[in-house]
Amino acid sequence: MSLEESEAEQLEQQRWGVIGVQLVITMVMATVIQKIIPQYSFARWLLCSGSLQWYRHPTEEDLRLFAGKQRSKSKKDRKYNGHIENKPLTIPKDIDLHLETKSVTERDTIALHYFPEYQWLVDFTVAATVVYVLTEAYCSIMKPSQEMNISVVWCLLVLAFAVKILFSLTTHYFIVKDGGERSVCVTFGFFFFVKAMAILIVTESYLEFGLESGFSNFSESAMQFLEKQGLESQGPVSKLTFKLFLAVLCSLIGAFLTFSGLRLAQMHLDALNLATEKITQTLLHINFLSPLLMVLLWVKPITKDYIMNPPLGKESIPLMSEDTFDTMWLWIIILLCALRLVLMRSHLQAYLNLAQKCVDQMKKEAGRISTNDLQKMVAQVFYYLCVIALQYIAPLVMVLHSTLLLKTLGNYSWGIYPESNSDTAVENNLLPSSVSSESPSVDGKTKITVVQIAVALESLKNIFTPLLFRGLLSFLTWWIAACLFSTSLFGLFYYQYLTVA
């Protein structure tokens, strides 16, 4: 066996050994999802740990007592066309009604709308995050070269589930005939389409996503690949088509996140009214402004230029290297996502308090209300708790795992003082590999198949480079944060000034 064949075989063994370890981690986590998580669910613990209090709707007998009425023994029913129609019981709106509170238990969650979807999204996100951490730790210790990171598949699945659930919630607004939710979604969808087209024409000197360099590198690599296959092409897609596709995708994401931002604004205002400590109020303000902080990380004149070239007299001394800056904003996004998760219960409790708030608002009105309408008004707040939880946590999941994908596929580092190898890794990925160009002549159909798969993966790596992933994932992460802040800011203005407190 020649030296080249032995080196190629060692590389194949290393490659399949690492993937084997990653597959073991995946299989173990799949077993945990199937056997352990249904018994020890993190999603269920977030709701049922005893800290959330919901308001029970009063029974008809309770409402009779509050209204000072007794159940009549004689029937005062009216007959129409031969059948008896019971007159609905009505009570004054200004009665002294106080709702009874109860801690959320596992039994209560059975009646919640979208509870299975909420539990699956949260628990699968936790499992995918654990797989990502274990895989990153293994890769940092063993330092495998030219390997596919299977945790990328987990992150993509998390994003797919989050988008699917948001799509399901949005379609629900289109099914309901009453209300203006459908018009709000369509309006914000067109607004975000125009906004995306405007953002995509901004130069890299203001918004540094890396889309231009990433797309140029992708087009050149694809053309080189097609030329090697004997095909003539001007590129897989034009830049205009590429940006138009991104704008349509951005408009859909913005429409899906519309009510998440509006609901976040309302819960933020109610949570501030409940908070008594200054530190809690400060954390709530930081949590609300966290999408804006994420957006500013990519605004070059405000963050990168100011840090890399600070105005310190005649000489400009950079405060940190470019690699350290990239690592810093990765950690900032992770910490802001952790803060949003910590404050989730405060926001959900603020939502649950809407039941008592609606009753207090009803007391200020004149007239009467039927007992059924009053019970529905109180009960529907609790029954839609998981819908609100999904609207709160789905954008968080999307930002978190798009950031994890950006780190992995963009060849970034988690170290504050990373080694100067990220740029070389990007450049090496742009070049064709010697292993992919010279397939070793080994015996056996299995080894030949392995070599063919390795060649195909290397060809895909040369086309879909880290520069492309940096541009795409940076833009998508920025866009999710921008949509969430835009809708929450509009919601803050709406609930603060356009509605009656």
Explain what you see.
The protein is mainly α and 501 residues long. Helix content is 68%, strand content 4%. The chain has 20 helices and six strands. A two-stranded antiparallel ribbon has the order 1-5. The chain has a two-stranded antiparallel sheet with strand order 2-3. Strand 2 and strand 3 form a beta hairpin. The chain is globular and about 85 Å long.
What is the strand and helix layout of this fold?
Layout: H1 3-35, H2 42-48, E1 53-56, H3 60-67, E2 78-80, E3 83-85, E4 90-92, E5 100-103, H4 115-142, H5 151-175, H6 181-200, H7 211-228, H8 239-256, H9 258-274, H10 278-296, H11 304-308, H12 322-342, H13 344-352, H14 354-363, E6 368-370, H15 371-383, H16 385-409, H17 422-430, H18 434-437, H19 445-463, H20 466-498
Antiparallel strand pairs: 1-5, 2-3, 4-6
Whole-number average pLDDT? 81
- Approximately how much beta-strand content do the residues carry? under 5%
Strands, total number = 6
Fraction of residues in helix: 55-70%
Oligomer: single chain
Series of H and E elements: HHEHEEEEHHHHHHHHHHHEHHHHHH
Q: Record the strand order, biggest sheet.
A: 1-5
Which regions are unreliable across 5 or more consecutive residues at pLDDT < 50? Answer: 14-18, 73-85, 420-443
The description of the largest β-sheet is: 2 strands, antiparallel
Kindly name the structural category: mainly alpha
Number of helices: 20
Distance between the termini: 81 Å
